[in-house]
Give the backbone structure.
Amino acid sequence: MEKAVIFVNGAKPNAVAAAKRVAVCAEKAGIGIVEGQDASGASLVFVIGGDGTMLGAAHAYPGVPLLGLNFGSLGFLADVEERDFAKAIEDVAAGRYAVSERLALSVMGKTGFNEVVISRGVSGHAALLELSVDGRFAARFLADGLAFSTPTGSTAYSLAAGGPILLPETRCFAVTPICPHSLSSRPLVLPDTSSFNVRLEPRPGAEAATVFADGERVGRLEAGVGLEITRSAHTMRLVRLESADPFKTLSRKLGWAGSSF
């Protein structure tokens, strides 16, 4: 019998009650529920919350496939809506799913399943960031920062900063300048084999930049120091139901269908 862990964002209204309903649905479908945080013997994690909860589950249960049951807002990762929870669990129990392997980034020994962000300090001055790709100079950005995005994270911070949308299993990364001080500064899409080096150049009034992975602060980048960002050896494994369609998800979440058309 397949076994699953339930990972729930208890801060979401009604999410704990939903977790109890999910447990009942799972047991009716023949999926055993592993109690507590021990994932021993579990082949799945049912994640109840939003995309932030999905990232938390990916870090908490590395390598275990995640099924996202949306209790958030947009829900690109946790894209199964509440009305479809029972059907999704039945599909999983019947084997009507595949596992999508998602790229991740590595920085300062930490993993970013969505993105790695280098952000200016609190001084208010823009950062001058020099980007090299595979040991070759690529660009110099005067900006509030740089977002290095995986395909999974392309609909997160990178999208808000004007970056491209990448389909989930595309083998590439996006580098998006955040509020660049030049109209010619544009996002770059580069192969997933690329390695990046970012150097913060000394500048009057500027200070050390802050480095984040999936929204968590992981360190500081001092002026004159290079920072390596590479593809991680880890991946995020997501349950992809047979009924899933990334274009339908984008259309639904971003309003591409447009009722005014």
